[in-house]
Amino acid sequence: MEQKLIIYNTLSRKKEEFKPVTPGRVGMYVCGPTVYGDAHLGHARPAITFDLLFRYLQHIGYKVRYVRNITDVGHLEHDADEGEDKIAKKARLEELEPMEVAQYYTNRFHDAMNALNVLPPSIEPHATGHIIEQIQLVEEILKNGYAYESQGSVYFDVEKYNRTHHYGKLSGRNLEDVINHSRELDGVNEKRNQVDFALWKCAQPEHIMRWPSPWSDGFPGWHCECTAMGRKYLGNHFDIHGGGMDLIFPHHECEIAQAVASQGSDMVNYWMHNNMITINGQKMGKSLNNFITLAQFFSGEHEALTQAYSPMTIRFFILQAHYRSTVDFSNEALQASERGLSRLMEGLKNLERITPAEGPDTVGTAYVEELRRKCYDAMNDDLNSPIVISHLFDACRVINTLLDKKATISADALKELTTVFRTFALDILGLKEETGNGNGREEAFGKVVDMLLEQRRIAKANKDWATSDKIRDELASLGFEIKDTKDGFSWTLNR
Ligand code: ZN
Fold first, then answer.
1. Partners of 327 in the beta sheet?
2. Are 58 and 50 in contact (CB under 8 A)?
3. How far apart are CA 8 and CA 15, in angstroms?
4. Which residues surround ligand 1, an ion (CB under 5 A)?
5. In this model, does residue 301 exceed pLDDT 70?
6. CA distance from start to end of the chain
7. Considering the entire predicted model, what is its pTM?
């Protein structure tokens, strides 16, 4: 690899040089959504963070197998192993088959991801499609003595595991902290210890999502699916496991314990976690009335929103912060992102309007080389997207001086500048021109003006002064200022 990628490993709590298990290949697993409701900003952040990593790893030459799961069973209401299954509850309330609920929200999730230009993962396994693998995992843990059966359910014996291993090594806790902070919930009678977590749950008679197992008709504990599916598709030892910081404990901590208890060793080399998004300084939550879905952002239909925000504005907003920093949503912050994004896309378009100089090159290839190096350096430093964006903004300033003919650039340097700009903005940051709303509408509008001015240029070339003047005068009456330049025209709209 030409690029030396450094990433922050949550497990070692430091930045490390990325070295894959198999040279040239990367196995990467990211926890996907539980499909019982519409995706919101909290889903957009890990999706975009790991899309950035997926794109970058491929860009620097790795063959990447990216697995992102769909949780469609076993995620109970209290994010622990108690309460009702989130999907089963929605199905009961809406009188639907649980798989109808899961399919509906999976489709909605895919639509939102497409809009955000998040590339689909290589494999998107569903928890319900991997019940056999999860039962096998539970059997292995039982066989190794780190789990016990109780009234048809199977629990992980955290206390026993912790005698020889460190339960809490990812989240930096020790068992005592965990015991002191665990809540008293039902099911407590079945467990030896309050901190034990479910590997298999015996289904109550009213529970509709159930499968046969050696222990009972029931369903797997939430943490099992990622261990079972990660291993199935990426092997016993793979490179990267990611997700939001809120998953570090208990979900990822439990995944580590399950892997070690079943196969005797850790499965994952690099744990990566994105930070959370707050809304006006508060945590997002249905009870706080600040729970805004992505569809609501795109349409503007939520009382907390002063306008609609295009998917690329949301993407750009998330990329403007480093993935390990918190991000606070506000209308002002998103409006600033909207302006920033249009400046960047404008820079991209302006590159096509620059005419290279025949004479001296005041910008020079050295500048372009430095820009390229600085952008790679930022990406290699734990995916520092805000720094990449600041370098692209600097490039926009240079592009403007070139447009204003206050600087000159050779054809070769211009070609390189265009390549660097497009590579980082489009391929790596994953930004795209939007059509149909927001910037897209303005883009179409701009093209119509360009078309009219092209007609005027042809009229002038044919000495058809009447048509040429008519186009100019009518555009002027609408507020357009047309400038004839050496090689065509330029226009601005004064409103
Ligand atoms: Zn997971």
1. 277
2. no
3. 4
4. 31, 226
5. yes
6. 51
7. 0.86
